[in-house]
Automatic annotation (TrEMBL):
The keyword Coiled coil applies. It comes from the Bacteria. It comes from Moraxella caviae. Keywords: Cell cycle, Cell division, Coiled coil. Belongs to the ZapA family. Type 1 subfamily. One of its GO terms (biological process) is cell division. It holds the Pfam family ZapA. This is Cell division protein ZapA. Residues 50-106 form a coiled coil. The lineage of its organism: Bacteria, Pseudomonadati, Pseudomonadota, Gammaproteobacteria, Moraxellales. SUPFAM superfamilies: Cell division protein ZapA-like.
Amino acid sequence: MAKPAAAPQTQAAPSQAGADLLVKDKPVMKPVDISISGTPHRIICPSDEVKNLEATADHINQKLRDIRKNIRGKTPTNEELLVLLCLDLHDQVQQLKHEVKSHEDSSSQALALIDKITKDARSVLK
């Protein structure tokens, strides 16, 4: 994914002849300006991930707007909103991990059942 702007931006390495060549197998990095909750950020990311980074920033900003709308009687600070968003996203990640584990368990059970049926069928056919 993306890196903070402090990351090196050069993609060229000097050759023995002194000419600059693109580093093979290393993506071309590009600075991208995004805004999260009104705060601008310059992120260095692979050029083929720029649209994904921008879509992610849009998604985060929409989630922040949704959280802000659901809070009544108080105007939360950006820091409070970001903490709530982090907690929400962490919860989503944990739920997805649980779902993946559940699917893996179901797959294992199905494969074990298929193996048992295959063995039983072979023993009957002998």
